[in-house]
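ok so i was messing around last nite and threw this chain in just to see what happens. nothing serious, just curious
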Amino acid sequence: MINGIDVDNVTAWLDGHIDGIGGPYTFDLIPGGRSNLTFTVTDSAGTKVVLRRPPTGAVLATAHDMAREHTIISAVGGTGVPVPPALGLCTDEQVNGAPFYVMGFVDGEVLDGPDKAEPMSPALRRAAGEDLIDVLAALHALDVDAIGLGDLAKREGYVERQLRRWSRQWEASKTRELPAIDEVATRLGADLPEQQGVSIAHGDYRFGNCLTNTSSGKISAVLDWELCTLGDPLADLGYVGVYWSDPGEEQLRPNDPTGIDGFPFYAELVDRYATTTGRDVTRIDYYRAFSAFRLAVISEGVYARFLHGAMGDQDLDDDTLRGFKEGTERLADEALDSIRRIT
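result:
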């Protein structure tokens, strides 16, 4: 087992289950992310596919997580919404110690910082921002029953359930008191919006989880479906707003490319989404506050795990650790600012 890959076993499985490729293979871990592991797999002829598996050391009693992701991209892949093609799923843990699935390799750039978007013209940056929202609108337009995902999760009460979940998580992981978090949770819970239908909710939709064709400004594929569920479509739109910086603004998320010339203003994206979908977006600040609150709790959880040595197999320098701590505080303040704008 090297970096989560049993080379001999996985090679035999790939040879027997994935058409169009043949060993020997090289397995290259794609850097970034703190959840599932993703590898570029290159065969003897140079053909590439992508393999995704849980983190090493994770306790996974069933193949549920990998099977769920594979099911989602298989269903969405037949709709025109750009996702990598699903090629195969292995649920036999004896092969590689945990389930994994294989998807097609898609060319494109992960725009996870301003430097990745710098070579693009302002016109292409605008096109990419607009297509990011158009793809989201297309995802939210899918009939979940027609594509076989109607039983993926509960349909109603998405925000309320999420608030309960993340409030519990905050109490379990917080390393200090942050009054802003408590105030945001209370105010969000007291003013729940009416859910506008049910859609696939990606849960982590942003440039950093997409492949972008930097020559055309089109989204080549949407990645990282592990948080996907059914729920309120406006949660994804609000989440985009947490990462987004308008042109000329300081980019507070170093893993997002926006804030440089050419990218649309967030308000333009919200208007574009509303025009395309017909949904009422007047309460988008609620969803931005909700998404910032959720991200603050996630950031605190990562900070707490590193602080308490629960992730001792990973090195984290003091600046990065401090970044998680301060990021939680900044997100809490952003959530509070957003919720105050609507009350």
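not much to say yet. The first strand starts at residue 26 and ends at 29.
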